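Colleagues,

For the teaching module next term, I've prepared a clean inverse folding example: a structure given as tokens, and then the sequence designed for it. I'd like students to try predicting residues themselves before seeing the answer, so please don't circulate the second half yet.
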């Protein structure tokens, strides 16, 4: 009581405030510098967090609980706000991130998550979701592995409050603008970006009605995160080739070259929890949501009964394309075609970045209703031999070797590579799961012709570098060539193609 009484004494009020602020800075220094290696260190960290939690929560002060009135409460809340501002000015969020990650290394996250989350969310609420604080929150707290999941599972009251105050909407509005996210993520490395992606996905999956309302901005947000990740990945690969740079292996994104400040997970339990966050992205619910987001105006007079069946959502979106022949112009300009290609681009990017989860993603997508058969029918609809002539024309027109239609082709090839690897002889030859033997034969003919002509095009284009080097960096070539080899090996064991099928004429 005597300590608190000093606050209401005009003569010592300023000194009392200064004393508390200085003591808070000491606690921050303790959290910033202490490694949880011994029991005493762990106690020191927990006690420091407890102090910061209590000093910014006047309603938990026993001296005030029995004597609280409206005016006193208003005064004490203002005091708490001033403390939060002071802590924020002294890198509170950055220090909380450092302390949390150290504790996660020692599997102590359950002991500190409540206080760390409370302080982080209080600062966010105190700023009324100010853009500057949202950026700081994104760069520090959201790059902590599974942070959102831990808050959700513990039914954290302040987490529920920030969700009700549209934390998801505030973040997505900021992340969905490419320039805004590029600026925000400038100092975040690829490992931390992957944890941020997991937390954003976890936040999206908590309230599906909110996600439904923010579907398009959320999709833009995912693309922006994946684009930055891919950019970092490519930069690391190029710098790694030029100089001898050591690499760190990460259980989700594979080898990461160069220096990284990201938390390399050694705790397998946390790895699995991050993977569970990602799984929402290739769940049936989200895949259907992506196809539902395609503009319905492109579907013309499609029957409403087809659209209502959830299992036929993918087929329904492809159906309009199957009514007429797909021309080269249609492939490059049609809104529906571009929307479908955009979805396949998303999953192709996901496979390229989350390299260690590649099989999980392909397995889940192969189980999606009608996806493989619809993609196969789409390719057949382009022209003879799976649109060989049309696709080669687009490839020749695009010197950068990139067009969204090739993401669709690559995703289909990746799915086929997965099937060619996992299907046994009975499933592939007798039951003919997913694709018929005639389809496998027809597609292998396309692959053989396309890969051969692609090599010839690159040979004619290349002037300064070797064709071999250029093809090694050509993702389309690598994907198609890999499947071609797989199918040729499978055919060598038990043939599904006619004689002289593999000869180029």
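(Answer key — instructors only)
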């Amino acid at each position: 009581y005597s300590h608190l009484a000093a606050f209401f004494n005009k003569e010592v009020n300023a000194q009392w405030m200064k004393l508390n602020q200085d003591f808070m800075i000491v606690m921050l220094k303790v959290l910033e510098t202490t490694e949880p290696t011994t029991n005493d260190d762990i106690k020191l960290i927990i006690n420091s967090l407890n102090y910061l939690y209590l000093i910014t929560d006047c309603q938990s002060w026993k001296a005030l609980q029995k004597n609280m009135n409206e005016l006193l409460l208003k005064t004490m809340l203002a005091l708490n706000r001033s403390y939060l501002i002071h802590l924020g000015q002294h890198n509170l969020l950055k220090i909380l991130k450092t302390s949390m990650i150290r504790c996660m290394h020692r599997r102590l996250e359950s002991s500190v998550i409540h206080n760390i989350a409370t302080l982080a969310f209080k600062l966010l609420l105190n700023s009324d979701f100010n853009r500057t604080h949202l950026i700081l929150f994104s760069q520090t707290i959201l790059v902590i592995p599974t942070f959102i999941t831990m808050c959700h599972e513990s039914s954290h009251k302040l987490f529920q409050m920030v969700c009700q105050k549209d934390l998801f909407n505030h973040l997505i509005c900021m992340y969905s603008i490419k320039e805004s996210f590029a600026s925000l993520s400038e100092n975040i490395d690829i490992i931390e970006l992957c944890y941020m992606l997991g937390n954003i996905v976890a936040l999206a999956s908590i309230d599906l009605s909110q996600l439904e309302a923010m579907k398009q901005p959320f999709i833009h947000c995912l693309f922006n995160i994946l684009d930055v990740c891919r950019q970092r990945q490519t930069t690391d690969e190029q710098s790694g080739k030029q100089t001898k740079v050591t690499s760190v292996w990460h259980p989700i994104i594979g080898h990461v070259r160069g220096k990284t400040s990201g938390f390399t997970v050694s705790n397998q339990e946390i790895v699995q929890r991050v993977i569970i966050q990602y799984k929402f992205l290739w769940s049936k619910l989200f895949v259907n949501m992506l196809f539902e987001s395609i503009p319905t105006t492109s579907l013309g007079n499609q029957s409403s009964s087809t659209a209502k069946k959830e299992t036929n959502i993918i087929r329904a979106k492809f159906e309009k394309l199957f009514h007429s022949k797909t021309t080269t112009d249609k492939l490059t300009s049609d809104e529906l075609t571009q929307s479908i290609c955009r979805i396949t681009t998303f999953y192709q990017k996901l496979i390229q970045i989350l390299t260690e989860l590649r099989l999980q993603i392909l397995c889940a997508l192969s189980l999606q209703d009608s996806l493989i058969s619809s993609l196969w029918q789409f390719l057949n609809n382009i022209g003879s031999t799976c649109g060989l002539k049309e696709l080669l024309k687009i490839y020749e027109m695009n010197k950068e070797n990139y067009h969204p239609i090739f993401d669709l082709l690559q995703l289909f090839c990746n799915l086929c590579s997965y099937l060619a690897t996992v299907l046994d002889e009975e499933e592939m030859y007798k039951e003919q799961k997913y694709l018929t033997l005639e389809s496998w034969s027809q597609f292998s003919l396309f692959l053989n012709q396309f890969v051969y002509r692609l090599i010839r095009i690159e040979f004619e284009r290349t002037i300064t570098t070797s064709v071999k080097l250029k093809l090694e960096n050509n993702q389309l070539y690598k994907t198609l060539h890999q499947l071609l080899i797989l199918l040729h090996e499978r055919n060598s064991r038990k043939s599904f193609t006619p004689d002289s099928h593999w000869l180029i004429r």
